[in-house]
Amino acid sequence: MQVWKFGGTSVGKPERMHSIRELLLTDPSRKIVVLSALSGSTNALIAIGEAAKANEDASAAKQIGDLKAHYDAFIKELYSTEAGLAKGQEIIDNEFGFIRSLVGIKPFASKQEKEIVAEGELLSTQLFQGYLEEVGDSSVLLPALEFMRIDADNEPELEKIEEKLTSILAQHPDKQTIVTQGFICRNPREEVDNLKRGGSDYTASLIGGAIRAEEIQIWTDIDGMHNNDPRIVKRTFPIRELTFEEAAELAYFGAKILHPSTITPAKLRGVPVRLKNTMQPEAPGTLIANQSSDREIKAIAAKDNITAIYIHSTRMLNAYGFLRRVFEIFEKYKTPVDMITTSEVSVSVTIDNSEHLESITAELREFADLEENDSDQNIICIVGNFSADKEGIALKVLDAMKNIPIRMISYGASEHNLSLLIHSKYKAEALNVLNERLFYYEDAMKGIFTAP
Ligand code: ADP
Ligand code: ASP
Ligand code: MG
Question: Which positions are annotated as binding ATP (predicted)?
Answer without folding.
Answer: 220-221, 231
